[in-house]
Each structure stands twice: as C-alpha cells, then as structure tokens.
C-alpha cells in the first residue's frame, strides 16, 4: 500500500498539472498601431458627405484599396456640386455688376467663389491621395508606433467642429426667418423666405420650389465645406505632429545618456523619414491650407469691420430689433445672437487651426535641445549631422509655399487684421446699398 502511494506521488510530481483557467492579471492589453487610415477615416467619410474626396476605399484598413476613380458616383457627386457652386457664383457676380459695389454685395461672390476653389483643391488632393497613403503605409510598416489618443482626438475634433458649424447654421436660419417675418409680415412661405435670403438668385430668376431647395442645399454645402477645410488641416496636423513626437519621446528618454553612435544614426534616420513625410503631405494639401487661411482672414476682417461700423446687431432695413418684434424665438435678437456667435466661433476656429498646424514645426525643433546635451565622450559625427539638419531644415506646413505655418504666423495675421480694420474704418464713407440690406451683410453666410 505504501509503495502504491509512493508511485502515485511520484507520477503526480513528474506530470504537470494543467490549469485551463486564464489569470486575468496575466493578460496584457493588445496594442494596435496608430495608422493613418484609421485616424482619418471618420474625417474623410464626412468630407465625402459634402461631395469632397471622391476616393474609393477610405474606410479600408489596407492602403492598396485606396484608389481614385474618375467614373464613380463620388466623382459625379463632386462634379454636380461644383457646377451648382459655379452657378451660384455667377449669379452673385451678375448681381455685383448690376448694383452699386459694396462689401455687402461682394461678400457672396467671395464666399461661393472660394467654395468652388476649395472643391477644386480637394479634387487635386483626391487625385494625389492614393500615392500619399501608400507612402505613409510604407513608413508605418517600417516604424509602427502606438498613439491611442490620435484617433480619439481626430474624431472628437470632427464632432466639435461640425456641431458648432451646425449650431451656427441654425442661428443663421433663425435670423433669416425673423427678418423675413418683419419684412413680409406673418405671410411666411418658402417663396418669401428664399427671396429674402437669396436675393442674388431670385431677384433675377423666377421662383420655383425646386430652384429654392437647390439653392438652400448649395448654401448648406458651402457652409460645411468652409468648415471642413479647417477640420481637414487640423486632423492632418494631428497625425504629422504625432509622428514627430514619437521620435521626440525616444530622444527625451535618451537625454544626457552615454549611447553609441548606432543609436544616433538610427534615430536621425527616423527623424529624416518623419520630416520627409511632412514635406510630401505639404505638397498635397498646401492648396487647402492656403485657401483655409485666406478665407478665415477675409471673413474675420469683414465681421470685425461690420462690428465697428454697425455694432453687434443685424443691420438692414428689415432688422427685427428695429421694428420691435418680440414675438420671435429670441425676442428680436436673432441677428445679433447669430452675429456674435459666428464672430466668436470664426475667431476661435482660426486660432485653433493656426496653433495646431504650427505644432508640426514646434515638434520638429524639439530634438535640438536633446542633441545639445549629448555628453562629450559620445559626441560623434551622427550627432553633429542630426543637429545641423534640425537647425538648418524648415519642417513645417505651408500655404502653397507663400507662408509657413509657425506660431509667429498668428501674430502676423493679427497685425494684418488690425491694420486692415483701421484703414477700412477710416476710408469707408460710402453708404450701404439698399439692395444689400436684405442680405444682413455676412451674417447669412
């Protein structure tokens, strides 16, 4: 009996005991690389809703599935939208030629004209997009990195920007409804509304319900295209900054340490690939950056000028405040509420685009502080080459190479705005055109 027990214990010692239960504490979270396709997926899909980005495969995980196809419903949608925008622009231009020239009459031409240019810029981006995505995928395969906040930042920014844009458009509609009720009494119909809101179309063409709906759709589309151009620049800047910060984290962890020359060569080559990626992205999207900054600059100047000229209120002969209408939703202050919200939102959005896009340049200069702290015994040719490249190279986004988006650009633009406002406020003595009063300046744009 004792011998049998000894054998049993002997075999229990020799045979491993299998345990099918998995310890939860031993599990490690699975990390997924922060890919370019995944980070900008929601942004690009939103762009396609507004007729931009006629590219196939934007929601695919594989870069090989991203292609630009001329004969596709996305391209046809863009082409029809572009023709519609050109039609509205021509109607606005016809109105300018047949009325006294003023800022209020010219503003719709610039608004819809820049929408056409923005659409063409995004068409160029779409044509170059497949090659850019494949190049970025190749870089990511060589140097995968894990930024769990990148996709979250892009999606959150999309939600915030589009929500504020929607709120701005709703306030513009409330302002237009209130102005129409004051000008036309309680007889508020679709015909009276579109004639009041879009005089550049219905002052010269007969009203029809289909034309009214089409004009409203093109107006909404133009408004969101304007906002999307800023959103696109922000999300692209997020990704490029993240790539550079990935290099910076490795450098900051090595600051002051005695490391071999091979480390500095490897990290310098990785920085070179990130800098080259910024240049290639800039070659593709620099047109969008230019039109985005130019658009924001013009409308900030225009809104501030109207503020200095008329105060924060809806100007025009049919202003609900001037008629004392208190039966409306905001008690006659719809135009003032929209004007104030639009001005503040435009300034904040423009500042955000400038600061976030300038982070690319700021992140590219971080390695210099680490390289200055390399100990003398390990200072080598690779460190010197790295330092020369950081100090001598200008890694930044630009607007068609006319300007570089750096932190100093914000102060330059602010100085330009102040100079413009002083000059325009001093020399503008021409009275507002009566035909322009119904548009309530830029408030309805």
Automatic annotation (TrEMBL):
One of its GO terms (biological process) is signal transduction. It is found in: Cell membrane. Keywords: Cell membrane, Membrane, Receptor, Transducer, Transmembrane, Transmembrane helix. The keyword Cell division does not apply. InterPro entries: Gustatory_rcpt. The chain crosses the membrane at residues 75-97, 109-132, 159-185, 197-218, 284-305, 335-357. One of its GO terms (molecular function) is taste receptor activity. One of its GO terms (cellular component) is plasma membrane. Pfam families: Trehalose_recp (PF06151). It is a multi-pass membrane protein. It comes from the Eukaryota. PANTHER family: GUSTATORY RECEPTOR, GUSTATORY RECEPTOR 5A FOR TREHALOSE-RELATED. Belongs to the insect chemoreceptor superfamily. Gustatory receptor (GR) family. Gr5a subfamily. Plays a role in the sugar gustatory response. This is Gustatory receptor. The lineage of its organism: Eukaryota, Metazoa, Ecdysozoa, Arthropoda, Hexapoda.
